[in-house]
Design a protein that fits this description.
This protein has 220 residues and is α+β, with helices and mostly antiparallel strands. The protein contains six helices and ten strands; from the N terminus they run ββαββββαβααβββαα. The N and C termini lie far apart (41 Å). 23% of the residues are buried.
Length: 220
């Protein structure tokens, strides 16, 4: 069930207190309109009715897609310590076997949704992203600040990412053959990173680097 709450938000520009609706829980199946607003990046937009100040509200939000069997917990600023005190498997036995991820940004939430809806393994996607970031950096002569999975080009047999280069506002696209993804998936499976767990975990570039070290037999 989606959970919508109403809270007071103080405008940082004019100080007006605005009653604001927040989606602290989103059920993708029951509320496709909320899902669509997550994907078009408008759900968390906020505008002060008094002065017109615009901002993006980032607050804890649990996204659940029962049909695809995954949950994503948005914990702002990466403060996932709040999750550590909860034994998910014991408190919510009905979630056993559900893929659980934690992200700290709204772009991270969108990316995870796109990955799982495409039927991909996010560890393997992160490995491909890690490799392509180096390619994009060398190609454009600039360091990569951020990178995100976009889509799978099935007719072309390619996986596509967007990368934001330092000091550049517009992203650049970089793609590679799906064979690279499948090879990355083999690495992930060999390293044992596909095993389902009970807790919400972060699967990002740090996790990808850890998988590579384990695959290569390197010491931590």
């Amino acid at each position: 069930m989606s959970m919508l709450t109403s809270k007071d938000v103080s405008c940082p520009h004019c100080g007006a207190v605005v009653k604001t609706q927040m989606a602290e829980g989103i059920n993708a199946g029951e509320n496709p309109d909320l899902k669509a607003r997550v994907l078009d990046e408008t759900l968390f937009d906020w505008k002060c009715p008094e002065c017109g100040y615009e901002a993006q509200l980032i607050y804890p939000c649990l996204y659940h897609d029962k049909s695809k069997n995954f949950m994503i917990y948005v914990v702002p600023n990466g403060c996932n310590c709040a999750l550590q005190s909860v034994d998910v498997s014991e408190a919510f036995p009905q979630l056993d076997g559900v893929t659980k991820r934690v992200v700290s940004t709204l772009t991270g939430l969108k990316e995870k949704i796109l990955i799982f809806e495409a039927g991909l393994n996010d560890y393997a996607v992160e490995l491909v992203k890690l490799a392509l970031a180096g390619v994009a950096s060398k190609k454009h002569g600039a360091n990569v600040a951020e990178g995100y999975f976009c889509f799978v080009d099935e007719p072309g047999g390619r996986i596509v990412f967007s990368f934001f280069l330092q000091n550049e506002k517009e992203p650049v696209q970089q793609s590679t053959r799906m064979d690279v993804y499948h090879k990355s998936l083999e690495i992930v499976e060999s390293a044992g990173a596909c095993a389902a767990g009970d807790d919400f975990i972060a699967v990002d570039s740090t996790a990808a680097e850890r998988v590579l070290r384990e695959y290569r037999g390197e010491e931590e």
